[in-house]
Amino acid sequence: MVLFNRELSWLSFNERVLQEAMDRNVPLVERIHFLGIYSNNMDEFFRVRVANLRRLILIGEKKVDGFEGTPKELYIEIRSIVLKQQNVFEKVYQKILEELSNEGIVQLDENNLNESQKKELYEFFNIKLKHEIVPIILDSKNPFPRLKDYAIYLAIKMFTAEDSKEQYALIQIPHNFPRFYRLKDDEQKKYFILLDDIIRVHLPFIFSIFTFDSIEAHTFKFTRDAELNLDDDIAVSFIEKIARSVKNRKKGEPVRFVYDQKMPKDLLEYLTKSLNLKRGMNIIPGGKYHNFKDFTSFPSFEHPDFLYESRPSNAHPDLENKRSLLKVVLEKDIMLHFPYQRFDYVVDLLREAAIDLKVTSIKINVYRVANHSQVMNALLIAATNGKSVTVVMELQARFDEENNLYWANKLRENGIKVLYGLPDLKIHSKLIQITRKSKGKESFISYIGTGNFNEQSSRIYEDIGYLTADLSISKEIKKVFYLIENHFKRGLFRHLMVSPFNTRRKIIALIENEIAFAKKKKKGLIRLKLNNLVDKEMIGKLYDASKAGVKVELIIRGVCSLVPGIKNQSENIKVISIVDRYLEHARFMIFGNNGNPIYYITSADWMERNLDKRIEVGCPIHSKNLQDELDLIFEFQWKENNKARVIDEKQVNKYRRIRKNEPFHSQEELYKYYMIEPTTDLLDGTLIKD
Fold first, then answer.
1. In Å, how far are 15, 48, 293, 426 from 401, measured between CA atoms?
2. Which backbone phi and psi does 121 adopt, to 5 degrees?
C-alpha cells in the first residue's frame, strides 16, 4: 500500500501557507501575516513532530511509515526541505519589503537612520526600553545560562583589535514591547524599525563599560521538545502532573537552533558548543530576523487595502433577534457555520440557559477556549444562579495547558464541577448539553461541533456547530458525559460515532456499504472534508473503495498520507487542499448510499489518535435542509479554482485551475451565500431564498 510520509506531507501543507505569502492577489500586510503563520507552524512542527522523530532515532527505530529510509534519513530529508523553504521565505519577505517601499513604507535598521531618527529612537530607548534589557555576559568561569524556548536572543560579539580579544554576551529581546516601532512620518514616507534593530543601535550604550573596537549582534532562537512527560507517581494528582510537566517543558531538549547565517563562525561555534548542539542536524541557518510569528501583528499603516476587507459574521435567520434561543432549538434543528455566521449565538445560548428558571443543568466539554472567555463567563453566571454546571476540561490541549489550568481552577473556585481526561485518553469532542424541565417534562438542548468553544479563533477558523433537541441524539450525548463522569465506562451508541468505541467500525461499515453498491454496478460515492488523513487502515479502505469503482472526493487541508491517482489502487480518488483567508477546520462526511445520502459532522480527523485514543464525537445530520447545506458547502469547495491545490503523489502544491474562464472562490462565494437573508416557509419548514 502506497503512503506518503506524514512529516513530509505536513511540510507540503506549510508550503501552501507560504504560497499565500507569495500570492500577489493577497493584500500586502496579510501576506506578511501568512509569513507569521508559517513561522509559528514551523515552531510547533519542530517542537512536536521533529522532537518525536528525534526520539525514534535515539531508540534505534529502523523504519517510519511512508518513507523508504530510516528515521535519521527522514530527519535529513526534513532538514533539506526546511532549508529550501527558508530560502524562499527570506526572498518572499524581501520582495514584500520592496513592495512596501513602493507604497512609501520603509523598513529601517541600524545602518540607515538619519540624525533625527536616531534622536527619536534614543529617547524611546532611554525612557522605556533600556531598563527592560538584561545583558548576560558569557564567561567560561560561569555556567552557560538556560535559554527560554520561543524567546529571541541577540548574540553579541565585542572585539578589541589590539590584543585580538573577543567578548561574548546575550540579550533577550523584551517580549512585553511590540516587535515593530513606528517612527515619525515625513511628507513622503512612513517608517518602521524592529525592536531587534533598536537594540543594535544602542549596543555601545548597553556595553559602555567595555572597551572594544567593534560590536555586532546576530539573532538566534531555540526550539525545545514540547512533549509532556507525565510520571507514574500515584501520590501526585493529574492536575499537578500537568502543571509540573508544563513547567518542565521549558527545559526540554533542543530540537532546533535557528541563527542569522551572517553570524561570525567563532560566535556560532561558541554557542553550539555551549548548548551541546550537533552541527548540521538541528542547526538551521536563516536571515537577520527570527520569530516571524510576531509578524502576525504587523501594522497596516492606515492602508485599508493592505488588509482583507472587513467581513463581519452574518446573522442566522432563525436565531437573530429571537427572545429565546432555547425555544427555537426545541422546535427545529439549527446548523451554524463559522465564521460566516456568528459564534455569539453559542455564548448567547449559554447566557440564556444561565438565567432560565427552567434550566436545571449545563454540561460542556472544553478543549481550547479564549484567554478571556465569554463561554467560561457564561458558565460562571449559571453557577451563580444555582444551575448544576459540569465542565470537562482537557488539560492536555497542547500549548493551551496553562490557560486550561487557569480556567479549571477558576471554575472550581466558583463551585463548578470540573472533570478531566486521562493521561492516555484526551477528550477532543466539542459538546454542550442543557437540561430543561417544564411542566414535569425534561428536555435537552444539545450542541455538537467540529471546532473549539473559542470566540476569538471562531473569527478565522471555519467550523460547523449543530444544535438539536432530537431525543435520540440528546440521550447519547448524555451517555458521553456519563461515561466521562464514571471513569470512561463503556456505553452503547446507535446514532453517534464515539471514539474510541465505535467510530472506526461505523466509518468502515459506511465505506463497505459504498463498495457493495459499486460492485452491484450502482453509484458509489464518498465525500470527506477533513483536516488530516493519516490512519493506514482507513486509507486502505478508501483504496479498496476506489478499486471497486467508488468515486472518492476528498478535501484535506493539512496532512494527507493517501496518494491519489495510483493505477490499480487510487485511480478513482481525487484530493484537493484549500488554504485561504479562513482556516478550513470543519470535518464532515457524506456517503452516497445509492441516492439516499448519509451525513455526519465530527470532531475527529482520520488519524489513529482521533479514532482510537481520544474521546471524539460524530453526529448524523437528518434534517433535509441541513443536509442540503452540507452538500452546498462541499460543492462550493469542490468547484474552488482559486485557492485549491491538487494533492498528488508528487506533493508539489500545483494550483487547481479547472474552468479557467469561470473563476470560483469558495470562501468568497460562501460568505455571499450567508449574506442572503433566508426566510422560513411556515407550512413545510423549508429554507426559501429571496
1. 28, 15, 20, 12
2. -70, -35
Q: Residue 273 burial (CB < 10 Å; 0-12/13-18/19+)?
A: exposed
- Measured over the CA atoms of residue 100, residue 106, residue 107 and residue 111, the dihedral's sign is positive
- Phi then psi for residue 256, to 5 deg, are -160, 140
Q: Mean pLDDT throughout 248-260?
A: 71
C-alpha cell at 309: 476587507
What pLDDT sits at residue 681?
39
Using a pLDDT cut of 90, give the percent of the chain over it. 73
At position 596, the amino acid (one-letter code) is: N
- Report the SS3 class of residue 161: coil
Residue 11's identity, in one-letter code, is L
Interval 618-627: pLDDT, tens: 999 999 999 9
SS3 sequence of 453-511? CCCCHHHCEEEEEEEECCHHHHHHHHHHHHHHHCCCCCCCCCCCEEECCCHHHHHHHHH
- Eight-state DSSP code of residue 535: -
CA distances from 671 to 20, 34, 310, 675 (A): 20, 21, 12, 6
Minimal CA–CA distance to 670: which of 346, 319, 314? 314
* Angle in degrees, 0-180, between the axes of helices 6-22 and 71-102, rounded to the nearest 10: 10
Residue 245 has pLDDT above 50, yes or no: no
The rounded distance, in Å, linking the Cα atoms of 600 and 593 is: 13
pLDDT at 239 over 90: no
Known active-site residue 290: no
Is the pLDDT confidence value at 560 over 50?
yes
Rounded to 5 degrees, φ, ψ at 526 are -130, 125
Give the max Cα distance, the chain.
94
pLDDT of residue 471: 97
Please tell me whether the peptide bond between 500 and the residue prior to it is cis, using omega within 30 degrees of 0.
Answer: yes
Q: Where are the alpha helices (DSSP H) in 65-151?
A: 71-102, 115-124
How many whole angstroms separate alpha carbon 295 and alpha carbon 297?
5
Please tell me which residue in 290, 316, 428, 665 is annotated as part of the active site. 428
Helices 503-519, 536-548: crossing angle, 10 deg rounding? 10
Distance in angstroms (rounded) separating the CA atoms of residues 40 and 150: 10
CA atoms within 13 A on the CB side of 582: 28
Indicate the pLDDT class of residue 318, thresholds 50, 70 and 90. very high
Higher pLDDT, 142 or 535: 535
Write out pLDDT tens, residues 117-126.
999 999 999 9
Q: Which residue has the higher pLDDT, 238 or 280?
A: 280
Return d(Cα 200, Cα 290) in angstroms, integer: 15
The C-alpha atoms of residue 429 and residue 205 are separated, in whole angstroms, by 54
- Tell me the mean pLDDT in the region 298-302: 91
Length of the chain: 690
DSSP letter, residue 160: E
Burial of 160 by CB count in 10 Å (0-12 exposed, 13-18 middle, 19+ buried)? middle
Over the stretch 525-545, which tens digit does the pLDDT of each residue have? 999 999 999 999 999 999 999
Cα end-to-end span (Å), the chain: 50
The pTM score is 0.91
Q: How many CB atoms are closer than 10 A to CB 653? A: 17
Mean pLDDT of the chain: 90
Domains with residue ranges and CATH for the chain: 6-306 (3.30.1840.10), 325-485 (3.30.870.10), 497-689 (3.30.870.10)
* Alpha-carbon gap, residue 321 to 298, rounded angstroms: 37
What's the confidence (pLDDT) of residue 255? 79
Single-letter code of the amino acid located at 293: K
